[in-house]
Amino acid sequence: MINVWIGIIFLIMTIAVYRVAKRIYRKYPNPFTLPIFLTSGFLIILLGFSDLSYRSYMLGGQWIDLFLGPIVVALALPLYRQLDLIKKYAQTIFLGIFAGSIIGIVTGIAGAKTLGFEDWIIKSVAAKSVTTPVALSITDTAGGNLSFAAVFVMIAGISGAMFGPVIVRLLRIQHPVARGLGIGTASHAIGTSKALELGELDGAVSALSMTISAVVVSFLVPLFLALL
Amino acid sequence: MKYLKIILQISVLFLFYYIGEAIQSAFSLFIPGSIIGMLLFFALLTFKLIRVEWVADGIDLLIKDMPIFFVPVTVGVVQYLEFFYGKGSLMIPLVILSTFLTVGISSCITSLLLKKEVDAHD
Question: Which sequence spans correspond to the domains of chain A?
Answer without folding.
Answer: 2-66, 76-226
